[in-house]
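Convert to structure. Protein one:
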Amino acid sequence: MTEILVVKLGALGDFVQALGPFAAIRHHHGDDRITLLTTGPFADFAAASGAFDRVWTEERAGWPRAGAWLGLRRRLRGGGFRRVYDLQTSDRSSVLFRLFWPGPYPEWSGIAKGCSHPHANPNRDFMHTIERQAEQLSMAGVGPVPAPDLAWVDADVERFGLSRPYGLLVPGGAAHRPAKRWPEERFGAVAAWLADKGVLPVVVGAAGEAGRQEAILKACPGARGLAGETSLLDLAGLALGAALAVGNDSGPMHVAAAAGCPTVVLYSAESDPALCAQRGRSVKILRRDRLADLGIEEVTGALEGSLTGP
């Protein structure tokens, strides 16, 4: 049995878009033992996926400390890894390659200088994440890479007591990038529109989005608020049963798209869908340089199409 290591630390959207590569690596290596190195928020989700035999976690905030680096070095060198797939492909994850000094070094797929299987495409930073990772694995002899898939998710979402049909609203996003957020009062108007259509609006997101959730619930008292109440597996389970999802470019919208849920994603100039757009069976992208310039009617029009089908 060969020991294989996969490195994928986050964030949520990137992690979801690595589900296809995870599956391809699992298929390629058959009965080999595959370990994932990730961060705490993704551990349970990764373990449930069936792609890995072990899940190791390291918190990135602790990595600059010398003790943390030394402990991680001992762990990596003691793992007996014959091959490593660095799907994070950042400067920080490439440092892990150096932790094997003075050798022996495992075979390494990534961008670390001197690695055995580099993703040797000078234009890799201009590729969509899905195509970039597929090409990286192809250069390491792994493929084909399937689309992200969440059919394996088994989450008890019935405990939320949601009536069907329901639609997911994702009004949040990275706290340090407010320009990626559509105004919450407009999400409130969309929630009211959905309710008029007989669709239960369900607000999801992190606990820190409680204020935005309250604004939506005030505009649409019949909506349900689940911000801060769902695990990543719960979120995937809810997306699998949802009639639609609408929200800002954020991790939960990648989950909705991968679940096959009809998805409408709102983009500002802060991110480029050519590089990171959600992928799924039914995804629509609405983009304005300033999200405040995106009208409610354009969003509800896109959702109308999701309710009525292609």
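Protein two, convert as well:
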Amino acid sequence: MAYEYIELHPDGPPLYRQLTDSLKTAMETGRLRRGERMPSIRKFSEDLGVSRTTVEAAYQQLCVEGYLKSEPKRGYFVLSGEQPGNAAPRRAPAVSAPLAGRFRYNLGTDCADAENDDLRIWRRHVRDVLNRREIIVSYGDHQGEPALREALAAYAGRARGIAAGAEEIVVGAGSQPLLYLLCGLAGRRRAAIGEHGFAQAEQVFRDCGIEVVPLPYDENGIDPEALRRSGADLAYVSPSASVEGGSAMPTSRRFELLRWAQETGGILIEDDYNGELRYRAHPIPAMQGMAGGDRVAYLGSFSKLLLPSVRIGYMVPPPSLLPLYRERARNYNQTASKIEQLALAAYISSGQMERRLRRLRKLYAAKSQLMKKSLASVFPGRRFTLEETALYFRTRVAPEEAEALCRRAADEGVRVRTRESRDGVFAALSFSGIPAEDIPGAIEALGRAWNEKG
């Protein structure tokens, strides 16, 4: 039996989990077929160079999940070449190397610039909170710490034009947990989302029993007429992200979507991921402020503004849902760390967030131009699109080549991620975490890996 379908990385998750996942994928894709006998624990451990305990743990987990069956004195056999219970095939995850530290150049989308992360200042604020014993020994506020909500109301009003007071803001551990909360409050049945899709949001909708309807884009974003015809009562939009024309959703299209919400009673979910971080032009104010807060649920976060590891987001529900939220609030546990909330409140109130924002706009403007120039030089025949607030360039790749392209990049010391959307697979080349001086070398190495030269 050949084992080329098995991926084990010493620096990744526990080996038995990696082995379990590799074998699941092999069964689901037909590489391992129903009734096929698996190698013995001893032989498999020797062939793979791992301990018998690792193989035994993987086999046991697969038996529990219904992928394998154990027959006494005969061994382990593949129970099915399909997922147990005839479930739909798992969506292919992003293909990426497990850890950035293994590579000379990190073009992954999950890192921030290590030279500009204000760690010293952030540590000071965290330390100040930890020294306040009377605060850290108690549970936090269900809605979010009042000090943070006050700071957010002032900051979001200045930076994004948000129309909300502290009592209208809900804090949580990132956008996805807040979206779950919102869906539970909204009680809606059908959510429209752009045809490119957003896997994390779609998963929340499906978990909450909400049908997902993909809508076509034009050069200005989601097509309003298609939205009207869809019968959706929720619409998930990211107006600050790049649309087909390469810029943010124009104001005229935003007003069209707001008219849909007013006329149909629908709710717009505005994911304003890094909306204040635009650096090629002045940021357009959030739709929530344009609507005076009505019919719009606003989601904001700080993953690229501060640190990806600080999992704090905030939501401003539409006024129609606030009474229901307040009625249920004490039944919702706060998901964000009270310590980090209070540290962030101090960081914002002291003006550090806005000073950092100004520095980051200059930094990312320079880095995006440098990467654009390097890409044009090394890949003259390939199209790259800047996703400004997401801080990466995207380029289409053939689905069957995605994994090979990541591996070839890794062989040249470059960490690259690919992502899947409804209209295909693309490579995301991020400049957020890589030092500016390393960008030309990273793109040159990528050119060698992908056999494309300028």
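The mean pLDDT is 85. The domain at 100-109+355-449 is CATH 3.90.1150.10 (Aspartate Aminotransferase, domain 1).
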